[in-house]
Fold:
Amino acid sequence: VFSSVARRRGCAGAVPRAARPLSTGASPTRDGPVGGTSTQLDPNTTRAILSDSIGGAADAHKTQMQGWNEFGFLVNDVELEGSVLVLPRSYLLWSPKTFDDVTVDSLKLVALIEPSIEILLIGTGEVSRPPKPEMVEYFRQHGIVVEQMNTSSSLSTFNILNEEDRRVAAALLHPSADWDDDE
Structure:
């Protein structure tokens, strides 16, 4: 279910919580990050990437969504290529690439997490779409509220709720899910 490539970014300084395209003064490429060394994972291997911050002090190591660019997301100074599933203190690469790929099966992991997640935000790309009824019902049965909005809004909402210590998860399709291949 989870796949793609993760790269360690050499970033410093505070980044605003609001969702926005990355603006670091230089452009990252698929060959390596800006200002850091690249650790490439085998893209042919399906992997789950967990941050090394599981556990720890109450405020330490919270997941912070820092933005996105044309390739993926920046989460806790790590550039993740493609879609992501972010949790209060960890994050995973997530395989869906289009809204049609977002299914109950692609998100069942969220219902298994302890302590339980109370809000699941689904970022649907550049365009906001209504939630699928079967998904809302499945998560309602597990005590989880599903909210769907465009990815930028989901990213910002996740940061705010996570900062408030809410048990929140965000499944974020990359905004390119709505881009035409011809562009």
Observations:
- Residues 1-57 have pLDDT under 50 and may be disordered.
- Residues 115 and 167 are 8 Å apart (CA to CA).
